[in-house]
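Sorry, can you check?
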Amino acid sequence: MARTRVLISAALVAVMAAGVFHFGRADHVKTETQALNARRYAASRLPVINAHLQQASAGYVLWAGDSNAELFQPPALPCGREVVNAGVSGATTDVYAEVAEKLESARGHAAVLTIGTNNLLSKKRPLDPAAVDRFERDVSRIIDALRARADTVVVTAIPPVQDMEAGVVNTDAVQAYSQRLEAICDRGRCAYEDPFAAVRAKAFGIARPGASVGIHLEDYRASLEPLLERICAESPSEASGHRPSPGGSG
């Protein structure tokens, strides 16, 4: 009887271990599939972006990044500059670095970059030092590529997400990664902005109620249009310096 109990216990442990392995493997496969899909979409989107860039008038503004960029539909601007949307939904920083390095265009007035949300999924352990280092390397590649294509590069903080996404997205990393972006810009390579300050709740990574759906904002124009209008009208010398984040979260 004792031997039987031992065998049953061992079998249960084996089943549980197999289950953990299965779900761990499934999670890994899902992550790999998402990465592959992001690269496939980036490959299909790049020719469209390049076609728009090649037709853009001189002094255009490039709007770069992930879905938080692609979902922004810029209004007609009084300064007359054209805005080319180069956002790629689903892009992580490594995927967008590859896109940025393949952009084909004459030099523009400015480039605005919003990137990082897709790096912050909790299952990716974004606060591990290795993940943070990869993020910085990728962002540096993107900024180098944009600096070669625009007189001014502005990098925004990472937008907040809906509170119900806190288990999917590491909301502490939203602030930590935004601080990394600010530090990169403090080295004189770009200007840092937080146009999303007004829609943040008390926690930096969480959006105010009604301001977002999932990981996306309800209204990108309300946050980004004032930034775009200011960048649009500025000279490169005015736009190149670091700007403190406007307002506060709370």
